[in-house]
Amino acid sequence: MTELEFVQQARWLVEHRGYKSSWVYVSFRTRYGKWPEGLLKQGDPMPPSSEFCEFLTDLWGVEAVERLKQWLRSMYGFSLKTGNELP
């Protein structure tokens, strides 16, 4: 996943989950160790990928990401596989 794709996916979650816009900055900084200068205005927000969910699993834990994936299924009809699914 490129840095731009990461920002696009984080922006999608901000828009659809109601997170504060600063969440994009903080999550990007957590993953890449720098600020996403210039990337926030590029590209359109896109739904999270499996790789993005793996990052969130490391950050939030499996149960929180499972709830996010359930929400994606119920609201948008798609599911992601991360390899960390609960039984």
Describe the structure.
This protein has 87 residues and is mostly helical. It has one domain. The protein has helices at 3-17, 22-32, 50-60, 62-76. Helix 1 (3-17) runs antiparallel to helix 2 and helix 3 packs across helix 4 (62-76).
Instruction: Name the beta content range.
Output: under 5%
Q: Give the overall shape, derived from the CA principal axes.
A: globular
How many DSSP E strands?
A: 0
Largest sheet: none
Question: Could you say which structural class the secondary elements and strand pairing correspond to?
Answer: mainly alpha
Notable characteristics:
4 helices, 87 residues, mainly alpha
Briefly say what this structure is.
The protein has 87 residues and is mainly alpha-helical.
Secondary structure layout:
Elements lengths: L2 H15 L4 H11 L17 H11 L1 H15 L11
